[in-house]
Specification:
The chain has a single domain (22-264), classed as NAD(P)-binding Rossmann-like Domain (Rossmann fold), CATH 3.40.50. It contains 8 helices and 8 strands; from the N terminus they run H-H-E-H-E-H-H-E-E-H-E-E-H-H-E-E. It has helices spanning 16-19, 26-31, 41-53, 79-84, 88-99, 133-146, 179-183, 207-225, and strands at 33-37, 57-61, 104-108, 125-128, 150-156, 159-165, 236-240, 245-249. It has an 8-stranded mixed β-sheet with strand order 3-2-1-4-5-6-7-8, sandwiched between helices. Helix 3 (41-53) crosses helix 8 (207-225). The radius of gyration is 19 Å and the shape is globular. The chain starts with 15 loop residues before the first helix and ends in a 16-residue tail after the last strand.
């Protein structure tokens, strides 16, 4: 006897459209332990994208608090969060449950540099959504040392970039750093103004750039998890929304970079 098919039954599966991609493996996505560092504009978008893509095991690290200027580019924050000066990580974790009640989102409300040495190595994938050089280089160094894929994203106004770091296969984040980055490596950019020892003007932020860069970061993360290494960005994805262009900028290993053993250079 033929099976009875109800009209609209395909629409009852939350991930039915994703499963139509031949290479998509929902179980791999669900079981991947993802560390997201940074709960600002990119962090908001990336956590949202990860959850909608099917990731269930997410840890978010951010020490800052919500202020009203965050509200025009951070989907998980609202007026109440700003009035109460809530911790960004707590606000995101709470609102994330509205997207998927089954997501397991853990939080750490301190600097990534202050967490134990075995913290970063306990994850399968690390995503940097940060606004300061020191923390990004900290992630880069620890991920490269322990063989963990790292996907870094950054924006300034209409410009953004994404870099995928595959230990022993690609250049690392530090390979692309210049003297200016080194100069500000220990400087702390804060939305709250707390614990700031060096003050600079706030960076420009633009919501569509954040959306584009976060989407690329999430897409590359999915490729990493599903083993699509040949299709990964192996240099630097550069986006300029004012000129309406995106490019892949070639990045070579820096022969003086300490993260690459002699066999890689």
């Amino acid at each position: 006897m033929a099976e009875t098919v109800r009209p609209g039954y395909l629409d009852e599966d939350k991930y039915e459209r994703s499963k139509r991609l031949e290479w998509f493996d929902l179980e791999k996505v669900r079981n991947t332990r993802v560390l997201v560092v940074g709960g600002g504009a990119i962090g908001n978008e990336t956590v949202k994208n990860l959850i909608l893509a099917g990731f269930k095991k997410i840890t978010l690290v951010d020490m800052d608090r919500v202020v009203r200027s965050n509200l025009n580019r951070c989907m998980f924050f609202d007026e109440d969060d700003a009035e109460r000066n809530r911790l960004k990580a707590k606000a995101i974790a709470e609102k994330a449950k509205r997207l998927d009640k089954d997501v397991d989102i853990d939080i750490r409300t301190e600097m990534i540099q202050n967490l134990p040495e075995d913290f970063i190595p306990s994850y399968d994938l690390v995503l940097g959504c940060l606004d300061n050089v020191a923390a990004r280089l900290h992630l880069n160094a620890h991920c490269y040392r322990h063989g963990i894929p790292y996907v870094d994203a950054a924006t300034q106004g209409f410009v953004g970039k994404v870099q995928v770091v595959l230990p022993q296969e690609t250049p690392c984040l530090e390979c692309g750093m210049n003297k200016t980055h080194v100069k500000v490596m220990e400087e702390r950019f804060s939305c709250t103004g707390e614990d700031v020892t060096f003050h600079i003007p706030k960076l420009a932020a633009e919501i569509t750039t954040t959306s584009v860069v976060s989407a690329i970061q999430t897409r590359e993360s999915i490729k990493v998890v599903l083993g699509l290494e040949k299709e990964l960005i192996r240099n630097v994805f550069y986006y300029d929304g004012m000129r309406n262009v995106s490019e892949i900028l070639e990045l070579n290993r820096n022969p003086e970079c300490t993260h690459h053993p002699l066999s890689e250079k």
